[in-house]
Design goal:
By secondary structure, this protein is an alpha/beta fold. It is about 40% helix and about 15% strand. It contains 13 helices and 14 strands. The strands form 2 sheets. Strands 3-4-2-1-5-6-7-8 form an 8-stranded mixed sheet, sandwiched between helices. A 6-stranded parallel sheet has the order 11-10-9-12-13-14, with helices on both faces. Helix 3 packs parallel to helix 4.
Length: about 350
């Protein structure tokens, strides 16, 4: 059972990773469930590729009073989770979803908390953002007493968790994000620069538009959100379900977000043989150390320095070297999650492996 504030069709990096893992489990015969927030025009219950999704809570309350609406979601998520009687409960992020999973586990079911990435704008990570608000800090202290296993896609998120909550003595694991292997470009020509408008981020949008306005001879293609008032050298594709083909057709992926956890779109670009230019935040720096050969494939500018970003982008466009980055696949990541969800975590807490 996964308890998460969001799930398909609303998907970020963490949701896409969870979806791939749960669908892999389902194909092998496990019963997989997701409890998430209700969405407009989406059914309250549906089965998506073998995974049963329950959408609970109240849209009206969430709109009128978000805090009260989240309390209602928490209670409804606890009730639905207990009804399904899962042997292992996982949650995404440190908010109401994790609280619901912790309450449902009651200390006698294994509970895994999967941290998400960059956090809200202005915070370098989700743990730091949570610790900066006293009510969230108290909430996380209460969850920690039920002894979950904390899993993150990047080492810097684990370090930030230890910094934000130094009194927590929890079991922690790093499981990297995986990518789709469905498409990789052949030796044909690549063209231009890609940019992903991932979510509302004024800082990222402004940095991208400044780069595009300065480098007028470069063709930019964006996907994700559609921006207003873009220069003529920018083509906006909009939302696409699988960006791997597009990422394999461009020369460089540009990232302008000030904070990153372990950016899926960057990993997918590297796996597709595409160079990356971005800001040297914690997530991008870890990507560079882990997958870039001497910073050859991932060029990083000081965060906020558009001048340096433009220079590195021109340099990357002039570089004809081939990108060969050993980024793990979704299947490899799913196998690693099996050791946590069905293996050592469950056995240490007195539960048998479901496969047995």
């Amino acid at each position: 059972m996964l308890v998460s504030g969001s799930y398909t069709p609303r998907e970020g990096g963490a949701e896409r990773q969870w979806r791939a893992v749960l669908e892999s489990f389902s194909r092998e015969g496990s019963s997989c469930y997701v409890v998430t927030q209700v969405l407009p025009r989406e059914p309250r219950r549906e089965v998506i590729r073998g995974v049963t999704v329950f959408r609970v809570g109240s849209l009206t309350l969430l709109k009128r009073s978000p805090r009260f609406g989240m309390v209602v979601f928490l209670l409804a998520a606890v009730f639905q989770t207990l009804r399904c009687r899962p042997s292992v409960i996982a949650s995404s992020m440190l908010g109401s979803a994790t609280g619901a999973a912790a309450i449902a586990s009651l200390g006698y079911r294994p509970h895994i908390v999967r941290l998400t990435g960059g956090g809200s704008e202005g915070y370098r990570s989700e743990p730091v953002a949570r610790a900066d608000r006293w009510i969230s800090r108290v909430w996380c202290d209460c969850i920690a007493r039920l002894d979950p296993v904390v899993v993150a896609p990047a080492e810097h998120l684990i370090r930030d968790y230890e910094l934000a909550f130094p009194k927590h003595r929890l079991r922690k694991r790093v499981v990297p994000n995986g990518v789709s292997r469905s498409f990789r470009a052949g030796p044909g020509p690549r063209d231009g620069v890609g940019w992903y408008a991932r979510s509302e981020s004024t800082t990222a949008d402004q940095a991208f538009l400044e780069v595009a306005n300065r480098l007028t001879s470069v063709q930019f293609s964006t996907f994700g959100r559609v921006l207003a008032d873009v220069p003529p050298n920018v083509v906006q594709v909009g939302w696409i379900e699988d960006p791997s083909e597009m990422l394999a057709s461009i020369e460089v992926l540009l990232s302008t977000t000030p904070t990153e956890g372990m950016p899926n779109v960057v990993l997918q670009a590297l796996a597709s043989g595409t160079k990356v230019v971005g800001f040297a935040n914690a997530g991008m720096s870890e990507v560079s150390r882990r997958y870039s050969s001497g910073n050859k494939y991932v060029r990083l500018a000081k965060t906020g320095s558009v001048d340096e970003l433009c220079g590195l982008l021109v340099e990357a466009l002039e570089d004809d070297s081939e990108v060969v980055a050993d980024v793990p696949s979704m299947e490899e990541v799913a196998d690693e999650w099996k050791t946590i969800l069905l293996g050592d975590t469950a056995s240490r807490m007195g539960f048998r492996n479901n496969a047995e």
